[in-house]
Amino acid sequence: MAPYSFIMWSPLLGAAAWLAVAAYLLTQQRYRTWTEVFFLGLCLGAGAYGVSDAIFFNMGDPASARIAATASLTSLTFASLFIFLYGVSLYHRFRGLLLLALLPVGFFVVTFYEEMFSGFTSLSEGGAPYVPVYNPTWLYPWIVVLGTLVLGGMYGVLRTFLELRSLSPRVARRIGITLLGLLVAVIAGSATNTYLAVTGNPAPPLFSTALVLPGVLIFFAVTPSALERLNTALLRRTASQYDIKGAFLTFSDGTLIGSRLVPEERMIDPDSFSATLDVIQNFMRTSFPTLRGKWLKSIRHGDYTLVMERGGHTFLTLVLGGEENDQLRRKMIESLNGFEAANEEVLVKWRGVAKDARGVDELLSTMLSVS
Q1: What angle do CA 262, 263, 266 make, to 5 degrees?
Q2: What residue ranges of the chain are covered by domains with CATH 1.20.1070.10?
Q3: Is omega for the bond preceding 129 within 30 degrees of 0, making it cis?
Q4: Which are the contacts of 294, defined by CB distance < 8 A and separation ≥ 6?
Q5: I want to staple 83 with a disulfide (CB 3.0 to 4.6 A). Which of 39, 79, 123, 153 is the partner?
Q6: pLDDT tens digit string along 123-150?
Q7: Which CATH architecture group holds 2-222?
Q8: CATH number for the domain running over 239-368
Q9: What pTM, to 2 d.p., does this model score?
Q10: Integer Cα distance of 144 and 266 in angstroms
């Protein structure tokens, strides 16, 4: 065991890097759009892979090693799935059909324990650490599925990088860092498994140790300023997908704080509009108790879509033609957070007087100018 004493725990270095990125994203509330959820899932999957590997390398018998190895491959599989979902949703509007990727992933996850391992080889005369002996009948199809998912996700990130390179070189560099981090993560996470599969020779347990490097790269790519610039650039790229007709800002009790419409748009009275939205929200929460604490995110009628985002005290609603996307929602969230930060005292002691709030016109004008 002595020659491997450091390496047996070294996967925790990679796990710490990726879990630190996940914790940072959670503190920044970067989980309110599909793209953000998928990236967060990728970080958690990579972190879980490192933790599982560290546990696996310290198991003292083959039966325990099998359980830990199953957890390790499951984490790696879900991390690959989230790479795919993140890359595709970053480049194009997320579609529900992408969830079909869950089918092969789910199939392999439920078969790992019984079918994937032919046995385990000890590297230290009958004790930890162990390395797996894979069943090639199941291993090679699994590698094909993971390769397809990873290449699909990397393709989406690469296409985004190429399109943003002319719009914003600085943002493109950040995307390039993310792309490099994902590429290194894939190579580092699969190198030893591939070596074992091809050669059948036991190898030092380095499966997820090298994940620390891409974890550090990704951490520097997700700073607040970098994420804001990225979203701004993506907004410019996707602005043609929708046409914003109006913006409404309401307090959580349904009181209208402000509204702005494009000049050519004719709509109902803004106060009646906000009151109707509040009635719909209350109806949904009353009729479906499981929705309490949640809010209606969108309503589609004909060619129009109402897109809603919630802050701590207020709601921002956009009326648009066309299709919403994650970048528009992120812009709504950031604008709403900025408004509430500037009006925290007023909103906490809200009197129902709209003129008490500052920056309402600026917020609504900013949202109308996005399209």
Answers
A1: 85
A2: 2-222
A3: yes
A4: 285
A5: 153
A6: 777 677 788 888 889 988 998 898 899 8
A7: Up-down Bundle (1.20)
A8: 3.30.450.70
A9: 0.80
A10: 54
